[in-house]
UniProtKB/TrEMBL annotation:
The keyword NAD does not apply. It holds the Pfam family Fucosidase_C. It comes from Zoarces viviparus (Viviparous eelpout). This is Alpha-L-fucosidase. Its main location: other. It catalyses: a neolactoside IV(2)-alpha-Fuc-nLc4Cer(d18:0) + H2O = a neolactoside nLc4Cer(d18:0) + L-fucose; an alpha-L-fucoside + H2O = L-fucose + an alcohol; a neolactoside IV(2)-alpha-Fuc-nLc4Cer(d18:1(4E)) + H2O = a neolactoside nLc4Cer(d18:1(4E)) + L-fucose.
């Protein structure tokens, strides 16, 4: 019998999960233990996708102020950041409450088909959308978030449902970001005061909403967050994941990250996010993802955002190629405005990324890390591989039109062929650096690239 059932279930949803995972005679493939859950193979689609778009959108998009603008409520109420306190004092009357922002979160220009078009044009294969951030406001009509959801107040729309339908029309995978905790939910604060010996918040809020999201929208990915306050045993994470992998409607295709309790990240779960903007110094031995915001100061939209604080296209491509060469996925974030508009600078960056991938995506999608990830010779080079084909992504154009690659070796079986993906049917001239290794490649005359990055396809090398 489940430990939860022995202790007495606190809510029907926990009882259901416990029964599905632990019932005698149940043919569940995965047990509610990390040893069992961590052994689940990662669904293939995720590793092959490589590129995703992250979307932070919620009530925090209304004030749209400050570094990490999605944390404004916490910065203001806790008085952790003086600029947040001063912003609220100067711009809002005494007695104004954070909840008052919700009626201004109207999403009047939100067109999910337009969003899906932009995301599709970016070359992304999946989109991770904020279903609920730490403020607790749900972007779908959650029955467990009365009057603090997008149907009851503000947009009066099912934002998750509308975007999910639009993404699927473009064959984009749906990911849902979900915060396990909520800063000021009384149930969570009560559990916290008990030293997390009680689980009322988990029983009545976290788990019901997670199950609701899965059954209602059938996401391909769950991006969990807000786990750091308490251990996974408080969140009942392993019980939920066992249900998700064994009995949920997405059990075969769903992907999860690693934020399921204090001490879990970079250790347990599906793929690893580790910390925000995770940048490993060597090739990881586990599938991972880097989340990176185009606005380098915030995940949510900031009204005071400056162009100098926004990643340019060469920086995005450089970051992407590093991540993919190191075996990761790249999740690039935007924060839409509260009215549902995506800032033109964000759209421009996403479409620029898509234009580059339209030419060079062969080196990105479904690729694998090569035996050597990078070298710095004539220019910085990152390598990826696909079967017996090697790709060399060069950051910057070599002077005098000559590019030296020292790492590739002659296979001995076939004469190497080198092509530029911009002109895939025109072999480039090259000469060996030594009888067995290295290539000196004569590069063609090329116009400037907005991304300042090009890709060579190397065949017949090892």
């Amino acid at each position: 019998m489940s430990p939860l059932m022995r202790a007495g279930c606190m809510a029907p949803i926990i009882c259901v999960i416990a029964f599905l995972v632990w019932a005698p005679g149940c043919a569940a493939r995965y047990e509610a233990t990390w040893a069992s859950l961590d052994a689940r193979p990662l669904p293939r689609w995720y590793d092959e996708a490589k590129v995703g778009i992250f979307v932070h959108w919620g009530v925090f998009s209304v004030p749209g102020f400050g570094q990490f603008s999605e944390w404004l409520w916490y910065w203001w109420k806790s008085e952790k950041r003086r600029e947040a306190v001063e912003f609220m004092r100067k711009n809002y009357p005494p007695g104004f409450k954070y909840a008052d922002f919700a009626s201004e979160f109207r999403a009047e220009f939100f067109n999910p088909d337009n969003w899906a078009d932009i995301f599709n044009a970016s070359g992304a294969r999946y989109v991770v959308f904020t279903s609920k951030h730490h403020e607790g406001f749900t972007n779908w009509p959650s029955a467990d978030s009365w009057n603090w959801n997008s149907m009851d107040v503000g947009p009066h729309r099912d934002l998750v449902g509308e975007l999910a339908a639009a993404l699927r029309k473009k064959s984009l995978r749906l990911g849902l970001y979900h915060s396990l905790f909520e800063w000021y939910n009384p149930l969570f604060l009560s559990d916290q005061a008990s030293g997390f010996k009680t689980q009322e918040f988990v029983a009545r809020k976290t788990l019901p909403e997670l199950v609701n999201l899965v059954t209602a929208y059938k996401p391909d990915l769950i991006w969990s967050d807000g786990d750091w306050s308490a251990a996974d045993t408080y969140w009942n994470s392993t019980q939920f994941l066992a249900w998700l992998y064994n009995d949920s409607p997405v059990k075969d295709e769903v992907v999860t990250n690693d934020r399921w309790g204090k001490g879990c990240y970079c250790k347990h779960g599906g793929y690893y996010n580790c910390e925000d903007r995770y940048t490993p110094g060597k090739l990881p031995d586990h599938k991972w993802e880097k989340c990176q915001s185009i606005d380098t100061r915030s995940w949510g939209y900031r009204r005071e955002m400056k162009l100098s604080e926004v990643m340019d296209l060469p920086s995005i491509i450089k970051d992407l190629t590093y991540v993919v060469a190191m075996g990761g996925n790249y999740l690039l974030n935007i924060g839409p405005m509260s009215d549902g508009m995506i800032a033109p600078v964000f759209e421009e960056r996403l479409r620029g990324l898509g234009a580059w991938l339209g030419i060079n995506g062969e080196a990105i999608y479904a690729s694998k890390p090569w035996r050597v990830q990078t070298e710095n010779s004539t220019v910085t080079v990152w390598y990826t591989a696909k079967n017996v084909t090697i790709y060399a992504i060069i950051l910057g154009w070599p002077s005098k039109q000559l590019l030296q690659l020292t790492v590739p070796k002659m296979s001995g079986a076939t004469k190497p062929q080198v092509t530029l993906l911009d002109y895939p049917n025109i072999p480039l001239k090259w000469a060996p650096l030594t009888p067995t290794a290295g290539l000196m490649i004569a590069m063609p005359t090329m116009p400037a690239s907005p991304a300042n990055a090009w890709c060579l396809k190397l065949e017949g090398v090892v």
